[in-house]
């Protein structure tokens, strides 16, 4: 018994030593390092702000570049070729800029001859407003503004310049703007509803 009693503490000490080495190795193995391009944790606030500012600046520059490209496409495209996507939105923003009063709503689309009127809905607070419209094409466009069954505006206008008409938004606040192409050519159309 004395032999086995003496062997147990030695074995236990060896086992404890092995476990200690394994635990130490495992703990140091968990503390890994990697390069994520960020400074150490205690120094990240200033660097994060600088990085966020740089990222926002890069995003703004990319947006400006895309807008310039879209505006270039919008101005370079022949009038008999309707615009779509970013070029259409860039054209609408160029001819009906958000510079006068408070913009309540805006949209742009294409009106095709022989097809039903392109309908765009507007929700606005009741009161006086101005409907600004424009079309891009070789002819004319019709616009009709209604509130439920009540017709507020109905007129035909020449393309390639902006037009505006005063309007009274009714108590319901819901308007429908309908564009159509009365001739035989398609037209890009856009509107902006503003309040002084």
* Oligomerization: single chain
CATH topology label of the domain at 63-195: Jelly Rolls
Q: Which bin fits the share of residues in helices?
A: 25-40%
Largest sheet: 4 strands, antiparallel
Distance between the termini: 103 Å
Tell me, what's the shape? elongated
So what's the CATH class of the domain at 63-195?
Mainly Beta
Tell me the radius of gyration. 34 Å
Low-confidence stretches: none
Structural class estimated from helices and strands: alpha+beta
Write the SSE topology:
Blueprint: H1 2-30, H2 44-76, H3 85-95, E1 102-111, E2 118-123, E3 127-137, E4 140-147, E5 150-158, E6 163-169, E7 174-180, E8 187-195
Antiparallel strand pairs: 1-8, 2-7, 3-6, 3-8, 4-5, 4-7
Helix pairs in contact: 2-3
What's the short version?
The chain has 196 residues and is α+β, with helices and mostly antiparallel strands. 37% of the residues lie in helices and 34% in strands. A hairpin with a 2-residue loop joins strand 4 (140-147) and strand 5.
Task: Provide keyphrases for this structure.
196 residues, alpha+beta, Jelly Rolls, four-stranded antiparallel sheet, 8 strands
Verbal overview:
- The chain contains 3 helices and 8 strands, in the order αααββββββββ.
- The radius of gyration is 34 Å and the shape is elongated.
- The N and C termini lie far apart (103 Å).
- The chain has helices spanning 2-30, 44-76, 85-95, and strands spanning 102-111, 118-123, 127-137, 140-147, 150-158, 163-169, 174-180, 187-195.
- The strands form 2 sheets. A 4-stranded antiparallel sheet has the order 1-8-3-6, covered by helices on one side. The protein has a 4-stranded antiparallel sheet with strand order 2-7-4-5, with no helix packed on it.
- The chain has 196 residues and is of the alpha+beta class.
- It has a domain at 63-195: Sandwich (Jelly Rolls), CATH 2.60.120.380.
- The longest helix has 33 residues, at 44-76.
- A hairpin with a 2-residue loop joins strand 4 (140-147) and strand 5.
């Amino acid at each position: 018994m004395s032999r086995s009693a003496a062997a147990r503490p030695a074995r236990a000490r060896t086992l404890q030593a092995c476990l200690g080495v394994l635990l130490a190795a495992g703990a140091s193995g968990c503390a890994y390092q990697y390069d994520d391009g960020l400074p150490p944790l205690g120094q990240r606030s200033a660097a994060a702000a600088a990085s966020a500012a740089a990222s926002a600046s890069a995003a703004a520059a990319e947006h400006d570049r895309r807008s310039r490209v879209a505006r270039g496409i919008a101005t370079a495209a022949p009038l008999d070729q309707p615009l779509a996507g970013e070029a259409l939105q860039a054209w609408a923003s160029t001819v009906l800029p958000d510079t006068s009063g408070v913009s309540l709503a805006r949209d742009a689309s294409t009106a095709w001859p022989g097809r039903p009127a392109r309908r765009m809905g507007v929700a606005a607070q009741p009161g006086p407003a101005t409907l600004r419209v424009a079309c891009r094409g070789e002819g004319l466009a019709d616009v009709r503004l209604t509130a439920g069954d009540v017709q507020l505006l109905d007129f035909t206008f020449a393309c390639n310049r902006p037009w505006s008409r005063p309007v009274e938004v009714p108590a319901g606040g819901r308007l429908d703007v309908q564009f159509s192409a009365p001739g035989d050519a398609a037209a890009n159309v856009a509107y902006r509803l503003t309040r002084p």
